[in-house]
């Protein structure tokens, strides 16, 4: 798990913002037009499950496609390309995109917590 450290039975992230695993469709508009999947998401950035033809420091424009919120245009700075992935840091979130990204991350965190609690038998009563 990238960016995650386990110490003394505790799960810690070494990032400024909590990342969650997702599988969300995304339409990349630049540097190449193609359908991809977001594989993780935070309020500060995302990881696309494809190596885009660009270098760190370049700009990528894409549209996150959601059932609940429709299409969300996002501009990001590429921070890493390799191992079949492209990592971007958000530099411009159009319209209400910041609120939508925050809600998507929060929803995924709640689902993960419910799954962990349910699989551990905690909270059953």
Account of the 3D structure:
- By secondary structure, the protein is an alpha+beta fold.
- 19% of the residues lie in helices and 49% in strands.
- It has one domain (4-118): Thrombin, subunit H (Beta Barrel), CATH 2.40.10.220.
- The protein is built from 1 helix and 8 strands.
- The chain starts with a strand and ends in a 5-residue tail after the last helix.
- Residues 1-11 have low confidence and may be disordered.
SSE order and pairing:
Elements: E1 4-7, E2 10-13, E3 20-30, E4 34-41, E5 45-48, E6 59-66, E7 70-82, E8 85-93, H1 97-120
Antiparallel strand pairs: 1-2, 3-4, 3-6, 4-5, 5-8, 6-7, 7-8
Annotation keywords:
1 helix; Thrombin, subunit H; disordered N terminus; two-stranded antiparallel ribbon; 6-stranded antiparallel beta barrel; 125 residues; alpha+beta; globular; 19% helix; 49% strand
Overall shape: globular
Number of helices: 1
Q: Which superfamily, in CATH terms, is the homologous superfamily?
A: predicted glycosyltransferase like domains
Q: Quick one: biggest sheet? A: 6 strands, antiparallel, barrel
Q: Which sequence of strands runs across the widest sheet? A: 3-4-5-8-7-6
User: How many domains in all?
Assistant: 1
Helix content: 10-25%
Q: What string, H for helix and E for strand, traces the elements in order?
A: EEEEEEEEH
CATH class: Mainly Beta
What are the low-pLDDT stretches, counting only 5+ consecutive residues below 50? 1-11
Strand content: over 45%
How far apart the termini lie comes to 32 Å
Instruction: Give the class from helix and strand content and strand pairing.
Output: alpha+beta
CATH topology heading = Thrombin, subunit H
Mean pLDDT across the residues is 83
Number of extended strands: 8
CATH architecture grouping: Beta Barrel
The Cα radius of gyration reads 16 Å
């Amino acid at each position: 798990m990238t960016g995650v450290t386990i110490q003394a039975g505790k799960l810690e992230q070494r990032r400024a913002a909590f990342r969650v695993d997702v599988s969300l469709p995304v339409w990349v508009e630049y540097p190449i037009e193609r359908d991809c999947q977001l594989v993780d998401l935070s309020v500060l950035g995302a990881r696309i499950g494809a190596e885009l033809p660009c270098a760190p420091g370049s700009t990528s424009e894409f549209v996150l496609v959601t059932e609940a919120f429709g299409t969300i245009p996002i501009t990001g700075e590429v921070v890493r390309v390799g191992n079949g992935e492209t990592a971007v840091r958000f530099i411009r979130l159009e319209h209400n995109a910041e609120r939508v990204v925050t809600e998507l991350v929060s929803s995924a965190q709640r689902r993960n917590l419910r799954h962990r609690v349910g699989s551990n038998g905690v909270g059953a009563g």
